Amino acid sequence: MIALRNTGNIFVCLYCAWCFRVLCGYNVTRPEADKLILNGKWTLKNSNGTVSLTATVPGCVHSALLRQGMIKDPYFRFNDVAYKWIALENWTYTTTFLVPPSLRAKQEVHLVFEGVDTVASITVNGITVGKTDNMFRRYDLRVSEVLLEGENVLEVRLLSPVLYAAGRSQASAYRVPPDCPPEVQQGECHVNFIRKAQSSFSWDWGPSLPTLGLWKEVRLEAYDVLRLVHLSSVPVYDASLSQWAVEVELCVDAVEAVKGNVTLSLPELGTMQAFPAVFSAGHTKRTLVLHLDRSTDVKLWWPNGHGGQPSYLLRVAGLLGSLSLRADTQVYFRTVELVQEPITGSSGLSFYFRVNRKPIFLKGSNWIPAHALQDRVTPAVIKNLLQSAVDANMNAVRVWGGGVYEQDVFYSTCDELGVMVWQDLMFACALYPTEPDFIQTVREEVLQQVRRLKSHPSVVVWSGNNENEAALATDWFGIPASQRPRYLRDYVSLYVDNIRAVVLEEDRSRPFLVSSPTNGAESQQEGWVAADPYDPRYGDTHYYSYTQDCWDWRTFPRTRFASEYGFQSWPSFSTLQEASVAEDWSYRSRFSSHRQHHDGGNQQMLQQAALHFHLPNSSDPAQNYRHTLYLTQVMQAQCVKTQTEFYRRSRSEIVEGKGHTMGALYWQLNDIWQAPSWSSIEFSSKWKMLHYFAQGFFAPVVAVGFEDEGALIIYAVSDLSTDLLLHAVVSVYAWSSQDPVCALKSSEALVRGGSASAIFKQPIAGLLAGCGRCSRLSCLVTFQLQDAQGPQGPLNHLFLSSPKDALCLQAPNITAVVQQDREGFVVTLRSLAVAPYVWLDVGAILGRFSSNGFLMVTRETVVHFFPWEPTSAADLARALVITTLRDLY
Ligand code: BMA
């Protein structure tokens, strides 16, 4: 709650949605006269007036045209290309509004745009009051002099983002590459010249739909004495004193200098302190530090899997001149450090996060915009995706730098769920201009975003850009050697001299990295652009290889921190169906090529799959198509599992100078539309097989099995805080039988909390010979960790040969019975044979299974279905399609 009250009984309640609403969940009571929300129905016209319609604000031109029936769904089939004209036009939003005398009479009246997408000039009653050039900024324009009592006309003239970017690039004194995206993306050029979601001009997983619009709230704010523009609270811990303090920042606009006092209190912790406060005329920033007693028992915020996420009410109360001020916010206490220090046995530096002094392995994935039209990204969509991340045992997401700084609800949900956020700043895969106006708008953008987000405990690191250090270091854009110094200078100017400076000025409570991937401290040593930003001995890495065999863990770099890696797959049929028609439903259709924005992607998926699986060969084309979609998901799930397990088991060891891996964030969590991509969740929010696999490979305790020099090795990996006394139970199964051929038990080992170590090792030849009746082709192994209490962590397995070579893999003829129970639905499966990659699909019925894509070695298995919308056992039974690997050939 935030309110400024005139003690003379007239309410002059001020409102700052930007900083308060979501950060803190305040209740605001204020008379409407001082805040006039201008959202709602506006008129929208193209430049020559041939298209005219009603448009909803917040929103964008595409959404308005769609809502008025003037275009069809831009995601349907090839419509993204058909609607390219929209972003080549200039568009004007107009609204007429009445200003009551009480508001007009205020000393100061401001027109506030929470978000303008992107380049616009704004007039009130025909007088220009401001210009915008940055989608990520809030614009606050003084309109006191131009506002009329009664009717006013507000106009926002938006320029075509595509033409603007082209114009800026043309006007640039030198080339700032890349010029255009690869042809396969069917995108627009020069997106680096406009401060707008970089993926909006197309990406290798997304369409080109450069939006234009007023994508966030528009309102008038009026005041006589002062207004509070921003409030944030950042807890800091003084280790030398063992004492917490909360830094509370107030930004105030005052008409005249005003004096008073502000009291900060944490009622639940019995802490209160009063501060004299002076705000001079104009804009003032004040930081007040509330010190907690050393004896105060502060409950800490922890990442998911490491503890709870408690918060405390922080009350801000004050008397400023004749105004009383009150604001309530939530504070979460935690510390975060990024540790980069020498490691014994390695020539590099460590790279790991320590939260509340505890080293934490970051498990998660990368977040991209959840829709090309941002007004379609509802809180429900965001919450569902983040809950899905947590349900797959993730504790972190990286908000990738080619999208948007997410909505407040994204970060508050991460706070509540214990999801750590690696927050990129919005620059990706390009070099950027450094003209003064560009730098200026970026500085303001970064300042505003850091202020908005710094109260969130979930944000654990700021990171300047995505892959731009690597782009320079490994010369993605063919820059002539003679010109390299200029681009290096520009890089340092933008990310170090400006962005880093602004971030550090605003927030020193968490680490700042200039890029990802980066060598971190080593990159800094090398002048901010390392010779090899992918060096696994330093910082984080991104790693992709589609041609090498992903089942071979030796192909992966043993990195300190894997912030990107992944493989593509296709979404399921029900998701694609929303965007296609029957003639599109084949792997080689025009539609299938159109949706694939990564050069050679469709081919690569099949090639990778063919290394270990038979490709579908049904004579029924529809069946073949569905089976191919399924197989790409099998391939992706298996590849990312192998790679992630390699990273998790590498956390405690140094091998040839490499290792101590402390992060695995695969590329990518979610999708922007219905298309092939690296995501583990489809656009429809349905989990792909990979997401189900993530539940297992990100489990707090897990057995990781792999083969090295002919031996089966099993690691026990634990993210727990406590030690465990574990043994591994290893069972050998023949593909032809649901009864294990033999079972073994390792000796007991002490597995320390937060460690990975080998618990079982045996030559495979010996193991199989000892078992009898087994060869690599006819048998597979399953394994699980156990202690005196029983199983610890999920059952895992390793195939000893490619399934395409498996002997006696039989048709399992799985049957299912669906029943309702208190929590949802129960599906009882019966199988006649060992069945790999058992996949349950209920089409468009939204929800998730408790597990899916699993290896079924038992005759009976029970799986739960948790619906996200009303459904029935009969509907589920009708929709349920079960696929296993054996069905493909
Ligand atoms: C990385 C990302 C994205 C991209 C992904 C897959 O480079 O940063 O730019 O979508 O790989 O190619």
Number of strand elements: 51
Q: Could you tell me the strand content as a percent range?
A: 25-35%
| Average of the residue pLDDT scores | 95
User: Shape, please?
Assistant: globular
Helical residue percent band: 10-25%
Ligand types: beta-D-mannopyranose
Largest beta-sheet characterization: 6 strands, antiparallel
Major sheet: arrangement of strands: 4-3-6-12-9-10
Question: Which structural class matches the secondary elements?
Answer: alpha+beta
With helices defined by DSSP (H or I, 4 residues minimum), what is the helix count?
A: 18
> Between the first and last Cα atoms, what is the distance in angstroms?
63 Å
The parts where pLDDT drops under 50 for at least 5 residues are: 1-33
Computed Rg: 29 Å
3D architecture notes:
With 889 residues, the chain is α+β, with helices and mostly antiparallel strands. 21% of the residues lie in helices and 33% in strands. The protein contains 18 helices and 51 strands. The longest helix is centred in the C-terminal third of the chain and has 29 residues. The N terminus is likely disordered. The structure holds beta-D-mannopyranose. Beta-D-mannopyranose (BMA) binds next to loops.
